[in-house]
């Protein structure tokens, strides 16, 4: 509880210092660079908040596009069982992670909804053998295709897109503020050092 209270007090003190830097009173000792940095921080925060509706609008447009794509794909694609006519690619691992390589086209056959059979090439995982079966997606013509986009996936993609766009804006603002603060801190440090050296020189001659 004490640590939490101390954190809240520190945050409150920082907010008060920033506010006094932006709107200094008559007896304020804030330097122009302090006021500029505080004003820039306030501007970055306001810009980040203002970016929320724009990111939401972009996510909404993405959802509309993907929802239409899902509605078009779902009735046109269905799952069938493919049987390999040849062995799949040999089992390999890459690097220290031990990750298995990507699937590769392999001869296979599958039965369509009307009972007819098709022969073609489908993506088979490494280590599979002739006679192995696994589900694939086909369109109305019986051609293998990617799985259809589901409504749930459209919602997730839209939310991820909107969130990613807003976070990218926040990252850009944070980079801008951090760069400016770094430059200002270096200038203030150099100015403080010059003032300290001047004070030391004045004491040496007094």
Architecture overview:
This protein has 206 residues and is α+β, with helices and mostly antiparallel strands. It has two domains: 93 residues; 73 residues, no CATH class. Helix content is 57%, strand content 18%. It contains three helices and seven strands. The chain has a five-stranded antiparallel sheet, with no helix packed on it. Helix 1 packs across helix 2 and helix 2 packs antiparallel against helix 3. The longest helix is centred in the last third of the chain and has 55 residues. The radius of gyration is 31 Å and the shape is elongated. The mean pLDDT is 85.
Q: How much of the polypeptide forms β-strand, as a percent range?
A: 15-25%
User: Taking Cα atoms only, what radius of gyration do you get, to the nearest Å?
Assistant: 31 Å
How confident overall, as mean pLDDT? 85
Number of helices: 3
Tell me the number of structural domains.
2
Task: Provide key terms for this protein.
single chain; 206 residues; alpha+beta; 2 domains; five-stranded antiparallel beta sheet; two-stranded antiparallel sheet; 3 helices; 57% helix
